[in-house]
């Protein structure tokens, strides 16, 4: 529940900014799979405070890593690919490919 709350806070923080062109969109890895590596990528507009976002994601990823170890979580060990192409639609960054 704590991880879900943290991820919701991250997504709400990202939602405080909007984009108007695809050039304003970025992505960042988040989370910690049991075998290592991120669980996925989050899109965000460049108007977001990146330092704060990076800290929020680092805290989330550390907590998820701890959760995985304490609860002996296993994963498929596949690494997600970053988005190949991202764009901006209705003020939100989206994955195109």
- Helicity, in percent? 25-40%
Distance between the termini: 31 Å
Main sheet, how many strands, which sense, barrel?
Answer: 2 strands, antiparallel
Q: What percent strand?
A: 15-25%
Strands of the widest sheet, in order across it, are 1-2
| SSE string | HEEHEE
Which structural class do you get from the secondary structure elements?
alpha+beta
The number of distinct β-strands equals: 4
- SS field, number of helical segments: 2
Low confidence ranges:
none
Q: Overall pLDDT, averaged?
A: 94
Radius of gyration: 14 Å
Key attributes of the depicted protein:
97 residues; two-stranded antiparallel sheet; 35% helix; alpha+beta; two-stranded antiparallel ribbon; 21% strand; 2 helices
Helices, strands, pairings?
Layout: H1 2-14, E1 25-30, E2 40-45, H2 50-70, E3 86-89, E4 92-95
Antiparallel strand pairs: 1-2, 3-4
Helix pairs in contact: 1-2
Explain what the structure shows.
It is a single chain. The chain is an alpha+beta fold. It is 35% helix and 21% strand. It contains two helices and four strands. The chain has helices spanning 2-14, 50-70; strands spanning 25-30, 40-45, 86-89, 92-95. Helix 1 runs antiparallel to helix 2. The longest helix has 21 residues, at 50-70. The radius of gyration is 14 Å and the shape is globular. The model has no long low-confidence stretch (mean pLDDT 94).
